[in-house]
Amino acid sequence: MTSPYIVKSATQPDASGQVLTVTPESAGWEYVGFQIYKLGIGQRLERQTEDREVCIVLLSGKANVGTKHEQWRDIGKRMNIFEKTPAFSVYIPSNDQYSVEAVTELEIAICSSPGKGTYKARLIAPENVGVLTRGSGPVERLVHNILPEDQEADSLLVVEVYTPGGNWSSYPSHKHDTLNLPHESHLEETYYHRLNPEGGFGFQRIYTDDRSLDEALAICNEDVVLVPKGYHPVSSPPGFELYYLNVMAGPVRTWKFHNDKDHERLIPLFMK
């Protein structure tokens, strides 16, 4: 039986190109929405943002992207996620609209959360993405900060992470499910997983201190994991590189996490 915390991608896109969707209603939470589209050359996607802000991440391929007031043509450079070059992305505020036309075969992620229309639509080019290595040894991973909290948005946070085979990520275990600033923020989170090679698997655990939630999830290529609360470490087996795209949002746009007390002794060893 599939866990309620895993959302599977469809084997084939629907007429609009959609292969996966998560809405606040389907997830049973308030903030984060997430969709994946696979578009053929010349195929178009057009949507209104309504009361939500959106970040379109070009996972692979090239596109023309437009909003009410802006146009960006032939953007995109990465033809495969595991090239590990930062993605082109586009931020669009609420009460706007967007169109995406595939110049090549195209995979896009539509990340969304409640918006106030505070900021203008903008292109987030690869040179605007913060690239860093986080952790060391068996918890080392490559991070692409697409829409971190020091960049303009109303509630949305977006980041890509590459975890080498045999390593752990989102580790030592941490959570962000309680609004207790400045110590901890409340953020819902989705993990969109990709594996290289595709036929592999990974693991993600979601658990709370009292173990009222305690799920050990076997994740496959193109799965989304829902993290409504609790700690949520990820493991990539040897021989299979793991990518994930994180979307986070909550009542306050800041990422403040609380470490599992049983793992705090590991922080000086691995998070230098």
From TrEMBL:
Its EC number is 5.3.1.30. It holds the Pfam family KduI. One of its GO terms (molecular function) is 5-deoxy-D-glucuronate isomerase activity. Keywords: Isomerase. PANTHER family: 5-DEOXY-GLUCURONATE ISOMERASE. This is 5-deoxy-glucuronate isomerase.
